[in-house]
Amino acid sequence: KAKATELDLPLKPMPEGIIVGGVGGETKVQVATIRAFGIADANLKNIEFLVGGSDSGNGLIGLNLLDIYDTEYDLANGVVDFIRAKNCGGANLAHWAGDKVVTVIDKLPGVDVIDTHIYGGGQINGKYVRLMFDTGAPTTVLTRAAAERIGIDLSAPGVIASANIGGIGSKSRQSWIVKLASFEIGGEAIRNTPIRVIDESNKRLNADVILGADFFLAHHSLVAGSQRRIYLTYNGGPVFSLSTDAETGKTVTRAENAGGA
C-alpha cells in the first residue's frame, strides 16, 4: 500500500468478503488499475494490482502474469524467461540440461478454479507431501500439520526453535528447524537435510511444503503449463540448508540421482 500511495494510484474496494491470505494470516485488500505496466519486452495495459498486506518491497508479480506462458526459472543466474511452446507435445523442454539429470514431475491442479498456484508431489521420509512452488517465499517451509502427520516430533532432542516467520499478513509464526532423513521429488533425493517447520494458521495454503527461493536457487526449473509438467535440474550445492546453516552450523547433505555435487 505504501508504494500505491507514493504513486498516487486511485484505489477501489474489492467485493465484500474477498480477502488475501498467506503465512502471515489474512488481510483485506483494495485494487489499483495500472494504465501501462512494462515487464520484459511487453507493455501491458490496464493491469489490476491488489493493494494491501505487509509492505515487504514494492510489490509481487503473481501467476496471473507468470503463468501466461511456460515459465523458466534460472534464479541462480538472475533470469526468468517466458516461453511460448508450440507443437512440443511430449518433448523434453529442459533445453538447458545438456547431460544433466532431468527430473520431471506432474504439475498438479489447484483445489478449485481460483487456486492457480504451482503444485507438485514429493515425499518426506517416505511419506507423500503436496508441494507448492513459490519464488516469492524466501525460504522453504514444511507446515506443522504435515510434520506431525509424517511423525516429526517438534519437542524431540535436536530440534531447534527458530525465528518467527511472516508473510503477506501482519502476523508472524513460530518456526523450528528439524532434520529429515530424506526429501524426494521425482527421482531426486536429498538425504540428511534440515528443513524449516512453520506453525501455520492459514488453512488456505493447500500444501504441505512451500518450496521457496532456496530451492529455486539450487535448481534450474521450467513450469510447463502447456504439458502439465515441471522440469528440474540440480545446480549443485546446498538446498534447504542454504537458509538454515547460519543457525545450525554447516550441514553436510547428500543429493542422489540429481547429477550435481
Task: Please describe the topology of this protein.
Blueprint: H1 2-6, E1 12-13, E2 19-22, E3 25-39, E4 42-52, H2 63-66, E5 70-74, E6 79-83, E7 103-106, E8 118-124, E9 127-133, E10 141-143, H3 144-150, E11 160-166, E12 172-185, E13 188-198, E14 209-211, H4 213-218, E15 219-224, E16 229-234, H5 245-248, E17 254-256
Parallel strand pairs: 9-14, 10-13
Antiparallel strand pairs: 1-3, 2-3, 3-4, 5-6, 5-15, 7-16, 8-9, 8-12, 10-14, 11-12, 12-13, 13-17, 15-16
What does this protein look like?
The mean pLDDT is 86. The strands form three sheets. Strands 8-9-14-10-13-12 form a six-stranded mixed barrel. Strands 6-5-15-16-7 form a five-stranded antiparallel beta sheet. The chain has five helices and 17 strands. With 261 residues, it is mostly beta strands.
Q: Secondary-structure element order, as H and E? A: HEEEEHEEEEEEHEEEEHEEHE
Strand order of the largest sheet: 8-9-14-10-13-12
The low-confidence parts are: none
Structural class: mainly beta
Q: Which descriptor suits the 3D outline?
A: globular
Tally of alpha and pi helices: 5
Number of strands: 17
Head-to-tail CA distance between termini: 43 Å
Radius of gyration, CA atoms, in whole angstroms: 19 Å
Work out the helicity level. under 10%
Largest sheet: 6 strands, mixed, barrel
Strand portion: 35-45%
Mean pLDDT: 86
Keyphrases for this structure?
6-stranded mixed beta barrel; 261 residues; 10% helix; mainly beta; 5-stranded antiparallel sheet; globular
In short:
This protein is mainly beta. It has 5 helices and 17 strands.
